Amino acid sequence: MNDDRRGAGQKAEDLVEAFLQSKGLKIIDRNVSCRWGEIDIVAQDGKYMVFVEVRSVSESFLVHPFETITRKKQANITKTANWYLKRKGLINAFVRFDVVGVIWRSNGEPEVKWLKGAFDAI
To answer: What is the CATH number of the domain that holds 54?
Structure first.
């Protein structure tokens, strides 16, 4: 990944972390990775362990950020979440998979959209 995309992704993740905290979620971890993939943010929302995928696009992008989560990506997030839960001894935790999309407007302002329960574990 080039430095511009990496920087934009980091900026979007920082923005989403602050957004989720403002909504009452407790951030537990960031950029959790293993052989199956990476989870951008792990948070707690009440009784739920929430695995959050952050998707960032410019407003000129033809597809909404939520539409960029492929079935394969969902499967990799699920595998990574299972690995994380086992590693932390949280195998019986209530789990939710959310996606937060950041659309960068041409004026540089972000529009943040949060989709709770975006997909089920596969």
So the answer is: 3.40.1350.10
